[in-house]
Amino acid sequence: MNSYDSDKIADVLRASEGMVLTDKAELADIIVFNTCSIREKAEEKVFSDLGRVRPFKVKNPNLIIAVGGCVASQEGMVIHQRAPYVDVIFGPQTLHRLPELIAASRASGRIQMDISFPEIEKFDSLPTPQITSGSAFVSIMEGCSKFCTFCVVPYTRGDEISRPVLDVMRDIRGLTAQGVGEITLLGQNVNAYAGEHDDGETVDLAYLIRTIAAQEGVQRVRYMTSHPREMSPRLIELFGDTPKLANHLHLPVQSGSDRVLALMQRGYTALEYKSIIRKVRALRPEISITSDFIVGFPGETEADFEATMKLIEDVQFDMSFSFLYSSRPGTPAAEMPDEVSNEEKMARLKRLKTRIDELENAYSEKMVGTVQRVVVENISKKDEKEVAGRTDNNRVVNFVGSHELVGHFVEVLITSVSMHTLRGELLRAI
Ligand code: SAH
Ligand code: SF4
Questions:
Q1: How far apart are CA 63 and CA 418, in angstroms?
Q2: Spatial separation of the C-alpha atoms in residues 198 and 407, rounded to whole Å
Q3: What does the pLDDT read at residue 393?
Q4: Measured in angstroms, how far is the CA atom of residue 261 from the centroid of ligand 2?
Q5: Whose CA is closest to 94, among 76, 80, 106?
Q6: pTM of the entire structure?
Q7: Which terminus has fewer CB within 10 Å in the chain: N or C?
Q8: Are 215 and 172 spatial neighbours (Cβ–Cβ below 8 Å)?
Q9: Ligand 1 touching residue 325 (CB < 6 A)
């Protein structure tokens, strides 16, 4: 979501100010930090990064320094106090107002701060994106109203709000017209989508995906992140009857212990989670199921952790993200008693990561020798004679191919796997 927002910030500044991206901060006319507050480490980084660019401001008083994202949303005043040289502070829902904020700051010489939640206005004011890949993100809903006890997102991004169907479809037609074949629908809880149609009716994500799959030019659709609580039968059905839906489901579980899941207020049990996976796999036996895990939630016992390890065995996840619990000020979990030592938590995280890695490698090994439908995303960073593409089950594969392939779907024979990357051989364009 943040990387999508960063692209939008770049689009907005390109359209309004003719700005181009640079890797060299010392050459920049505007430096924008897009911050994240999901875990403490990400938040701390903001202040050290700001300290690093302060000397540029001394050398070039016209330099504009802006801070956006969720840290700005939650800690706007603190940023202003600790880093008074920051010119503009904006939130995830006001990034489209950046040009006006910059202009006001230049005119007045004073800090401009707008961290409000003006609902969906943002999307109507965004310029056409610059397409550099065969695959693109389309944000269909924003915010979160779930209030899991560990999570800061509902406070920083505001309530769930969905974009109208016709707005989403207009964006998608714009992308397919530029040759984009793969669309990833984005949202904090994308399956809570409840968008208005032109007849005033509200439609769900399943409806939206069917409409998108029927759109000429769309070759593959994905969505993330979805919440187990809203994995509706209609959404599950799509895996059976919509071939354009990618063979991948990212469904964060967080824990395998019902006790911890209840403390987290996730709204499902491990059994309910497994039942969703069973139904999905009945329709798509080869689907890749990935997840997010939090290790060391306050009061997590050895037995709770073992329940998570058991769930991993039961489901046989393919690739997952795992995080050490990070206490977020203002969330209910931050007040919960926690007696487990940090060493213990780290040891659990290491054990969980090792098992997840083993499963990921086993799935990759199984792909060797298979032919995969790949959307070519970009020229390889390491070797310009190579390109990198994404398989149906969301893995990156590198292979020899010309830059002209970028944006196209091709068939690739998977020849080997090393660490987290697959290598392949181009068979043909499709
Ligand atoms: N809306 C999605 C997740 C969004 S946040 C969902 O509910 O599944 C992305 C991931 O960050 C979460 O799935 C969770 O694993 C992790 N996360 C969120 N808050 C965290 C915290 N306080 N400490 C550690 N990890 C956290
Ligand atoms: Fe955070 Fe996801 Fe829970 Fe919302 S559903 S509060 S984003 S973890």
A1: 44
A2: 31
A3: 92
A4: 13
A5: 76
A6: 0.92
A7: C
A8: yes
A9: yes
- Determine the atom of ligand 1 nearest the C-alpha atom of 324: 24
Query: Given this model, what pLDDT does residue 127 score?
Result: 75
Spatial strand order in the sheet of 320-324:
248-250, 288-295, 320-324
pLDDT digits (tens, 9 = 90+) for 228-255: 999 999 999 999 999 999 999 999 999 9
Ligand 2 atom at minimal distance to the Cα of residue 154: 6
* Structure confidence at residue 120 (pLDDT): 64
pLDDT digits (tens, 9 = 90+) for 156-167: 888 999 999 999
287, 329 Cβ separation under 8 angstroms:
no
Instruction: Report the SS3 class of residue 220.
Output: strand
Q: Of 70, 71, 140, 151, which is best to mutate to test ligand 1, by the most ligand atoms within 8 angstroms of its C-beta?
A: 151
Distances (CA, A) of 196 to 93, 117, 166, 201, 346: 20, 20, 8, 6, 45
Cis before 225? omega within 30:
yes
Query: From CA 385, how far away is CA 398, in angstroms rounded?
Result: 10
For residue 189, report the distance from its CA to the centre of ligand 1, in Å: 11
Which atom of ligand 1 approaches the CA of 326 most closely?
23
